[in-house]
Each structure stands twice: as C-alpha cells, then as structure tokens.
Write a structure and sequence with these properties.
This protein has helices at 2-59, 85-91, 167-171, 173-178; strands spanning 60-62, 81-83, 95-101, 108-112, 135-137, 152-153, 181-185, 190-194. It is an alpha+beta fold.
C-alpha cells in the first residue's frame, strides 16, 4: 500500500513539474513577445524623431532675439525662425507650412496636406511608414490657411513628439505665461496665433 502511495506521489510530482515547466515556458514566451514589441515601439519613435530632427536642421534657422522686435505701431512681429520652403519642397511637395510653438521646444514641424486625411496619419514627411505620422492639414481646408477655421492634425505621442507636449499648457500655467502664441509659417505669409484654450 505504501508502494502505491509513493508511486502516486511520484506521478503527481512529475505532473506538477511538467505543469511548472509549461508555465515557465509560456511566461518566457510572453516576456520575449513583450520585449520585441517594446523594442519595435522604441525604434519607431527613434526613427520618427531622427527624421524630423534632420528636416529641422535642413530647413529651419533661428533668428536672433533682437530681430523679433516690433518697430512702429503698425509693424507685425517677426517669426522667431526662418524656414527654407524650397528645401522642404525638394523632399515633399505636399508641404504647406511649418508649425512652431514658442513656449514648447518640442513642437517645430513641417505641415503637409494630402489628398485625404489618411495619407499622413502614419506616414512621415519623407513618406516612410511610422505610426507618429506627420502634422497635416485637413484635406478639405485651403492649403494657404486662408479659411475661417483650419484643422491641423497630429498625434499625441507618449514620448512628447508631435503634439504630445501640448498637454503642458493644461498642466502648468507657467508654460502659458512663458508665451501664449504659436506660429504657422507658409511660403507666402506667416501667421501668429494666440492660444486661448487648452
């Protein structure tokens, strides 16, 4: 009788060992799958960030602070940056402008307009696939920003890229106090907008 009990205990121990081994294998597989996905997300973020940094270096020049001064009662403020639209159009002819938010260092991007609102949802300025996409204007809006309302779309990326930093206006009053303006620069005209709500 004790031999049967020992045999049953041995069988149960083997079943328990097999079950633990299977659970361990499944846990390792889940961990590897998650690690591969995290690596893929990181590389997507990095590719998008690197591409936009390169474009900004190629086409944007900061102005000296004193050149932004407004002289005279009817003078308009000058944009804090200059944009080389010829260089931008040599890369992508769909460019319609550049967005620059004074209070947030991270928002300085080209703006494009596609044939629909899907084109640039997950496509970068250089037309590479990336889930960050590109900042783009609604395809039904006028490309020169002359409409009464112009819709500009961009993702709220977790790493702060694209429009990910905009939430800082709602989180910290000091950000708004730093500057309550943003710029849309176009090949023909520059627009300075006041932020009235976040």
């Amino acid at each position: 009788m004790s031999g049967k009990n020992t045999e049953n205990q041995s069988k149960q121990k083997k079943k328990g060992d097999i079950l633990l081994t299977l659970v361990l294998i499944v846990a390792i597989a889940v961990f590897c799958y998650a690690a591969v996905n995290l690596f893929h997300i990181y590389t997507e973020y990095k590719k998008g960030t690197d591409e936009y940094n390169h474009i900004e270096q190629m086409a944007v020049t900061d102005r000296a602070p004193d050149s932004q001064e407004v002289a005279g009662p009817n003078a308009q403020p000058k944009a804090p940056i200059d944009v080389d639209f010829a260089a931008l159009k040599s890369v992508n002819s769909d460019v319609v402008g550049w967005i620059y938010v004074e209070a947030l260092d991270g928002i300085s991007y080209p703006i494009v307009q596609g044939k629909d609102n899907e084109t640039y949802l997950h496509q970068t300025y250089e037309k590479n696939y990336n889930f960050a996409g590109t900042i783009f204007v609604d395809y039904e809006n006028s490309p020169d920003f002359s409409d009464c309302n112009t819709l500009v779309y961009g993702h709220n990326m977790k790493n702060g890229s694209m429009f990910g930093h905009l939430k800082k206006f709602a989180e910290d009053q000091e950000t708004y106090n730093k500057s309550k303006y943003f710029w849309i620069l176009t090949p023909d005209k520059n627009y300075r907008y006041e932020i009235i709500s976040a």
